[in-house]
Queue: 2 jobs
Job 1
Amino acid sequence: MTLAGRPFTKMSGGGNDFIVFDNRDRWFPRDGAVDLVARLCRSGLGVGADAVLLLEDDPGSDFRMVYYNADGGEAPMCGNGALCIARYARLEAIVPEESMRFATGSGLFHAHADPASPAVTLWLVPPRDLTLRYVELEKPPYLRVGFLDTSTPHVVALVDDVGAHDVTGEGSRLRRDPRWDPPGTNVNFVATSGRHRLRMRTYERGVEAETLSCGTGATASAILTYLWGLTEPPVTVETTGGIPLTVDFAPPDDPDTLPADVRLTGEARVVYRGTLDEI
């Protein structure tokens, strides 16, 4: 199948960039997706992006989001990608209302997107698989290290100076640590700056590099720093991309349970629209 003439939308969600396709007629060659997605996402030879998003029909919700990392591997979910596909669905009139529900590999999500504004709010599935502290890893420069799955797996490591941290080297090392590999984990390095603010840098699996932002990573970071007694909701997360994400949730009454009603708010912007040619 030739892809020439196929339209796409380039979007930025909180600093992550995505190539978005309307795949309701199932034209996208899912069997050859690994090589195709890797070509599309490669800067200089393709469109260039952190990931590819497909919007497909779903019988039990408004639509389904299919997510491919830049290496061509399919992943169940991406927070910033979900912000983008929710706004894309409204801009393209695929959903008639600002409130919508859509399916992912991590379950059903609810979002609110106003087509006139880039701000989108996403209600996440309940977080799970908490490890509050890995004391054996808490050696300088790490003050705290924990793990939480916020629809994708995340290690969160607290440091004093996140700006000077070796995100590439340490992110690659921890991402493949035997505790989490296979399938590996995303790694977020954070520093607090008050009770309602974090600075975060993220090493993403599948991209295998530092990215400008990570929505589910911001969510995991806000919840873990809350459980460590360092922050309280709402938490504004400052990312490398410079576009803040806000994480809000209901603190649990029982200290042995995780927060509920977890919400992620961030910007989903259309960068440009185009058509594929010689890819």
Job 2
Amino acid sequence: MGLLRHIHRLNAADPSAAHRFVVDGQTMGLIHDAFAAHLAFYTKVFAIDDRQVRFVSGLNSSEARTGALAEVGHDLARRGLIGRLRGEIYPAKNAFHDPAAFYLDRTLVSYLGLRAYGVHVNGFVATPDGPWLWLARRAPDRLVEPDKLDNMVAGGQPAHLSLRDNLIKECAEEADVPESLARAARPVSTVTYHMETTTGHKPDCMFCYDLEVPENFIPRPQDGEVASFALVPARQALEMVRTTDAFKFNVTLVVIDFALRHGLIDPDVDPSFEALAAGLRAGDQPFT
């Protein structure tokens, strides 16, 4: 089956079959044609022509756009055209440190094809035989990828919170990691991809952290998002990514990234080494 299949799967989006969402002169999202047709109903918010979706003249500030989108989101959910609103507010921006062009409910992000950000924490134990990874098993009632394997800690990046503060929050909520230990997590890489789902485009960016934990540390589920944790050799986790579909779709890339950085994939042996390394950033420029 192989490792590259995950990179190919998560970078199979077709921008040609979408409307561009243009804000302040730059493309910020890619919207499925069918959903763009739904947005055309809201003539006081959107102008749609030449396969482009724009805010109407007058919605020129972040505050105005945010208020208008909140009303649109509630109406779309009421009409059953999107999933339920999640009450988590995300910023709309093409680069993490850009100012937000507007804010919106997390549910709307993929429908509008916007870039979303997240933090992923590789909790590992160092041993003489190589690292062992703590893996989470997602709860069976999760909306996305129930029962799949996940990183020890992972979460979307909401508005008005730093990456570090979000990491500490997610560590406590998902795995009962004390703040003193969570603060030892090291930022090590970003992984990007551009995939499509039934709701829309996902040109996402994951900020990856390594957190070496003591041998006697055991993560414990706290908020119901995780059913259980297991400690496995990182080589075994990599082999599971290679030969199974046991992991949540984007976590496969985080495990591959960890394996590359920790020397678990040998470029003298694995002919896909270069393609793997490059593929982990294949979504860097999703709108070009």
